[in-house]
């Protein structure tokens, strides 16, 4: 069988919590394909399974059945699961959360450089990589600032830099624009699109944010644990 080489491929994924009478089937039939360089939206009402799907995608929890490959590697296949989930998360997945969760006593550069340092890159190289991303995200002038000195939009850009710094093939963003005004929310989406293309990253954005929904070319709706794909309003790039 040919293995898709990059991006995200999910087939017939399900997730059950608990067993017996109290079991909850949070995901019933999830199918999703995200190409390298693509940003897709994931939307759905409360309780529909968004967080459960993000946890499976992020290798934070194990699915119950189905198949999932990330960045060309099979992570889960009907009960079989990759052994070293920590290494997998470190190498394959970048997380961008709503609250940026920056480390308050490290400056902006070291907040971004910490992950590659922990992965064993020499400090100088890790900082150089952090600065390159801060430049790409237009916050290089804040490189020596502490997180508390940043605006909300700047914090979110730093959080995006941190999500990208280990060059993961997959980025999972949970409500990344929720605290931002329209202009900054659209700027964050533009940046995510540019980063996806520049680094061949597959990005999933979970959102309720009406402001950014028109920016997606493709969306997945999830209802009662079942995904439905639909075309978004944004035009495909030439
Ligand atoms: N740890 C858990 N144990 C039992 N049920 C859970 C757990 N987490 C989520 N659920 C249930 O799974 C369903 C989907 O929840 P969730 O994935 O959090 O949806 P969403 O993020 O879209 O609100 C809900 O019915 C929820 O109550
Ligand atoms: Mg949730």
UniProtKB/TrEMBL annotation:
Q: Where is the ABC transporter domain?
A: 8-237
Q: Which Pfam families match?
A: ABC_tran
Return the InterPro entries for the record.
AAA+_ATPase, ABC_transporter-like_ATP-bd, ABC_transporter-like_CS, ABC_transpr_LolD-like, MacB-like_ATP-bd, P-loop_NTPase
Domain of life (superkingdom): Bacteria
Name of protein: Putative ABC transport system ATP-binding protein
**Species per Swiss-Prot/TrEMBL record:** Paenacidovorax caeni
Any one Gene Ontology MF annotation carried by this entry is:
ATP hydrolysis activity
For this record, an example GO cellular component is: plasma membrane
Q: Does the keyword Ligase apply?
A: no
What UniProt keywords apply to this chain's record, in alphabetical order? ATP-binding, Cell membrane, Membrane, Nucleotide-binding, Transport
Q: Does Chaperone count among this protein's keywords?
A: no
Give the Gene3D superfamilies listed for this entry.
Answer: P-loop containing nucleotide triphosphate hydrolases
